[in-house]
Amino acid sequence: MAEPEVVALDLTIDDLVPKSPERLAEEKKESGNHLYKFKNYKGALAMYEEAIKLCPDNASYYGNRSACYMMMGMYKKALEDAQKAVALDPTFTKGYIRVTKCCIALGDLFGGDQAAQRASELGGPDCVTSERRALETLRRLNEDAQRALDAGDYRRVVFCMDRCLDYSPSCTKAKLTKAECLAMLGRCQEAQEIANDCLRSNSFDTEAIFVRGLCLYFEDKDEQAFKHFQQVLRLAPDHKKAMETYKKAKLLKQKKEEGNEAFKMGRWQQALNLYNEALEVDKNNKTVNAKLYYNKATVCAKLNQIKEAAEACTAALELDENYVKALLRRAKCYTELGEHEEAVKDYERLLKIDKTKENKQLLHEAKIALKKSKRKDYYKILGVEKNASEDDIKKAYRKRALVHHPDRHAGASDSERREQERRFKEVGEAYGVLSDPKKRARYDHGQDLDDGCSGADIDPNVVFQAFFNRGQHFEFPTGGFPGSSFTFQFG
């Protein structure tokens, strides 16, 4: 029978003696340090946690875990560990440096100053030079932001908060200050994303809830906004901004609805007054104010205040450049005011935003109106309406031709004679076109008259002689051609 093989074990006395918690903790720490070195922070964190369980009163273990949390961007937990480390060992310089760094990352300037002072006392002023520089920069940025906020310069505040967040990436206050100013600038989607991110960390953050309510208010979602403001005031009854904004929101809704009701009842002036009052409630609510300006324009049009209607539409478009209804109404106002070039510009802009057949047709009609406006208004020259009959046109021509005939003004000054000759020529042109049914039809439809039937081609003297040469007697007063009189025989 074979003898069993004996295996020699390479054991030392240390292997046979149970390891103490302190020794096991040190081994865990060393393993953690190795993982940390290779940026395996999650693995290192697990090792440091085991070391702390074994030796919960060792400051360095908390310091190492704090460093790990910092690298993972978990600054609140990092700060707790760093504070625990210096509580266990008040001479732990690295611990105070980490407290300073965490306070900076969280935007706690007071806490950062205190920790930096203690670190300087233990390790000398040079050990926190960069941290002190960061704290001073953050102080200046916050002061600059406050001045900008007081002045209503929200873009500047956003700029300052972005710079602050470069130093303090976990500063909730800087994030929400930025979000509030973004909302004030009309960038509500960006503001809501920031607020929602903050609420994922703390669902009872009143500032984040307020920002969400502010965004809903600026988006004209009254009821949802009211619920948010009410929630803020339940959590923080003295929240000044929530109280003020809630009051404004309710007043704005009231005035707007009262104006709409007056409009429905046909009380135009009352509606106009109410819309004007609503526009004074909150200048920052661009969405609602744009609608109010459009409503005001509609009322002004009802009151035949066309210029004021156009101005109200312009105000609406300054708040919302793609407001189709305001653009359409302003174009119509410009047409009524005879500002045809502006009307064409608005219809062109409208067609780019809303490419419909109707808008294309409106642009076409506006271009025809513009073309007409640049030609002589023959109806105006003769002093007749656009629906004047043939007899009306003849009577008007007879009257005007006699008034402006050059022979009547032969004794006038050179400038006066030239002016009367110009008017006489225009009267002849007008009659030559409007007395011809085909030419008049083309003229009325805005078609060119330059294809051989232009009014400018008409000789006013020929028209005059043809019109008056009917056997009737007419003699201009003395002062016709020098040394003679000018006589027509009328039938």
Automatic annotation (TrEMBL):
The keyword Repeat applies. Residues 377-447 form the J domain. It holds the Pfam family TPR_6. Coiled coil: none annotated. Keywords: Chaperone, Repeat, TPR repeat. The keyword Ribonucleoprotein does not apply. TPR repeats lie at residues 25-58, 59-92, 206-239, 252-285, 324-357. It comes from Papilio xuthus (Asian swallowtail butterfly). SUPFAM superfamilies: Chaperone J-domain, TPR-like. This is DnaJ homolog subfamily C member 7. CDD domains: DnaJ. It comes from the Eukaryota.
